Amino acid sequence: MLIAQLSDCHVSAPGEEFTELYKTPDRLKAAVDHVNGSVNKPDLVILTGDLVNAGRPEEYEILRGIVSDLEMPYYLLSGNHDDNDSLRAAFPDHAYLPKDGNLCYVIDGWPLKLICLDTNIPGKPQGNLGEAQLHWLERELAAEKTRKVVIFMHHPPFNTGLVTMDEMGLLDMADFAGVIGRHDHIERVLCGHLHRAIQKRIGGTLAQCCPSTSHQVMLLLGDNNELGTTFEPPEYLLHYWTEEDGLVTHSDYVKDYKVAWTLKGGVM
Ligand SMILES: [Fe+2]
Ligand SMILES: [Fe+2]
């Protein structure tokens, strides 16, 4: 089983400053084309939030026009730049999206149980899961007796050392860690929001952030309270699951690079 994780597309409308600077729709289109044409073609794609930049209906229409070209099933999560009602309205055929309340759901039918959470607090850059969603998560984790579980959520449940981004972090990360700590079948917690590849062990599992299909956040660790973005290459993650080896994560650039050489069946 192969899952592609795309994140933080921040799709915006033509003429907007953001579109001019980052060309986010073009960059997402390039990522979709890359996924479709890859030799490592995923079984499904999960987009971990900040799907659009300002949560506006016209942005979701542009998003829909791009992601509907994906040649495999795809699933949408909400981030702090999203608006849950506009998102739902633009994807009425995505029956897995709850009709009201949090956009949290389970993707079933695979060798892993995939649980998607909603960390969106309307109008705020920070994230929060809330008591009701944490109870729901606890029940979903307890109900799974045979398979490993992978959790998807926009805000990572850990501080990263990028202090300005951490100020926009998950408010109830301690409560989330409490839930995670009570279960030993969580294979991974997969997030976005940071626009960088970052990993941290939490409880008995690994949490990690996926880079953006558009722009990345500057790597400024420690007491540096600056915030900036860079044009480091757009990336996405490929999570490869086998029963024997578990979940192994690779990152892939959206751009194709020239092959230096190949050798069939050889040892380097
Ligand atoms: Fe983002
Ligand atoms: Fe975000």
Outline the structure in words.
- The chain is of the alpha/beta class and 268 residues long.
- The protein has one domain: Purple Acid Phosphatase, chain A, domain 2 (4-Layer Sandwich), CATH 3.60.21.
- 24% of the residues lie in helices and 23% in strands.
- The chain contains seven helices and 13 strands.
- It has helices spanning 17-22, 24-37, 57-67, 84-90, 130-143, 163-166, 173-181; strands at residues 2-6, 44-48, 74-77, 105-107, 113-116, 149-152, 186-191, 198-202, 205-209, 216-217, 229-230, 235-242, 246-253.
- The strands form three sheets. The protein has a six-stranded mixed β-sheet.
- Strand 2 (44-48), helix 3 (57-67) and strand 3 (74-77) form a beta-alpha-beta unit.
- Helix 2 (24-37) runs parallel beside helix 3 (57-67).
- The chain is globular, with a radius of gyration of 18 Å.
- It starts with a strand and ends in a 15-residue tail after the last strand.
- The relative contact order is 0.16.
- Residues 50, 79-81, 154, 193 line the site of one fe (ii) ion (FE2).
